[in-house]
Design brief:
86% helix, 0% strand, disordered C terminus
Length: 452
């Protein structure tokens, strides 16, 4: 291994651990709600399962449109086009505000989705109140994610991490206090207050810290550049829809499981929460690797970019297998951390065994999706996701759970089994596509240099 590649590996891991700390703090904010709601009542936990599924589906899919800005920032930085970073961010602000309006309307009026999913009527009031508060949080969250993407692309993830840790520290006491007064919607109020505080500090830093000055971020807002916005949308819409398909293939399970009763919903919420927590490591590594791969593409060294991709996929397989084994061994103990109900614990223990195997392909596919964006490939993942995650994952799970007479009938196990199968196909597809395109780009540049 070359000295440069070793240096890059060390840099990516340092970046990963910093991003991971912040990501875990963000996910633990959701875990806090799960624990608080579980202690409050099983009904509150079941309502949170459904509300979180809808909220995450909407927000993550729209954030996916903005996530294409990260490799663009990093590529500009690698090419030395520093002021273009600020111009790109300004156009992204217009995009973020437009997307926020869409999310706000969906979260404020979710009744049709809840009815379509046959959510138990007694859970609907709490779900609607929770989502109404989350709707007002959407613009703040979108801006915070833009702040995060900027810092990750510039190699300064610690500017985000310490804010995320602070948000978690503030949210824990707020959630416990407000749920006692307002019930489940109190958890959403705590989220709204803490994200507003974090965003305020982030805006202050962008306005005053010297590290941002070369990138011309803090200045009079540029007028809308519809050509640039259109270019971002052509990349971002398929990316956002890909994340919508990817996240809904997971979150819609909560809606489909809801009709199996409170115990099934509560157990699924525990399994889903644990899956989301361990998911943060591959996301963090994917973000760090994307920033460095895009940097070297912009810098004119696609050969090193290709080597980094191979290294990323190898490490992804190693740490996903390790985490999966840890979940498998400790699944019963993990379930007891979330609930004292023996029926919920028993079912959650079973589901966590599925989570252990689910995590391996889930890690590889998310890193693959991020890295494909370095090469402006966003449409192919959308098609692959739609066919396999919705077709085999959700469609196959629904058939096994509600249309078959197998041992998976009327259990959430069916959805986890088909999710593992579908994600395995997607992970293999993305990995092969990445290895192929990165090698082609590296060889093309080499051939061009030789001919010159």
């Amino acid at each position: 291994m070359s000295l440069q590649l070793k240096t890059e590996r060390s840099l990516i891991w340092k970046h990963t651990l910093t991003v991971l700390t912040g990501q875990l703090a963000a996910v633990l904010s959701g875990v806090v709600d799960t624990v608080v709601a579980g202690q409050y009542s099983n009904e509150a936990l079941a309502a949170l399962s459904v509300a979180s599924a809808l909220n995450i589906s909407v927000i993550v899919s729209l954030i996916g449109v903005l996530n294409v800005l990260l490799p663009i920032y990093a590529e500009h930085r690698g090419a030395g086009r520093h002021t273009e970073v600020g111009k790109t961010l300004h156009q992204g602000l217009y995009l973020a505000m437009g997307l926020s309006v869409v999310a706000f309307l969906i979260l404020m009026f979710p009744r049709w989705l809840l009815s379509l999913s046959q959510v138990p009527p007694h859970l609907i009031p709490d779900i609607e109140h929770y989502l109404a508060i989350q709707a007002f949080m959407v613009p703040l969250f979108m801006l915070f994610r833009m702040y995060a993407a900027l810092n990750q692309a510039l190699g300064k993830p610690w500017f985000v991490t310490w804010l995320q840790v602070g948000i978690l520290a503030l949210k824990i006491p707020l959630s416990y206090a407000l749920i006692k007064v307002y019930g489940l919607p109190g958890c959403a109020m705590a989220s709204l207050i803490t994200i507003a505080a974090g965003l305020g500090i982030g805006v202050y830093l962008v306005a005053t810290h010297a590290d941002y000055r070369p990138f011309a971020v803090w200045r009079k807002l540029d007028h809308p550049n519809w050509v640039a916005i259109g270019r971002h949308l052509r990349l971002g819409l398929p990316a956002g829809l890909s994340q919508l398909v990817e996240i809904t293939s997971f979150t819609l399970i909560a809606l489909l499981v809801a009709r199996l009763g409170v115990t099934a919903s509560a157990a699924h919420q525990i399994a889903g929460t644990m899956a989301a927590m361990v998911f943060m490591l591959p996301i963090s590594y994917g973000v760090a690797a994307t920033a460095r791969v895009s940097y070297w593409i912009g810098h004119g060294n696609p050969k090193l970019a290709a080597q980094l991709i191979r290294q990323t996929l190898t490490w992804g397989l190693v740490f996903s297998c390790t985490l999966g084994a840890a979940i498998l061994v400790s699944r019963h103990w993990l379930a007891t951390l979330f609930s004292s109900n023996p029926d919920v614990v028993a079912l959650a223990s079973t589901l966590l065994a599925f989570v252990a195997f689910y995590h391996v392909p889930d890690s590889l596919q998310i890193m693959g999706m991020f890295l494909l964006r370095c090469y402006r490939i966003t449409l192919m993942p959308l098609i692959v996701y739609s066919i396999f995650l919705w077709g085999i994952g959700l469609g196959g799970g629904y058939y096994l759970a509600y249309g078959s007479s197998t041992s998976f009938a009327q259990t959430p196990n069916a959805f986890w089994l088909t999710a593992i199968i579908s994600l395995g196909i997607v992970a293999a597809w993305f990995s092969m596509a990445l290895l192929t395109v990165s090698k082609q780009k590296a060889n093309t540049l080499w051939q061009t240099k030789v001919s010159v």
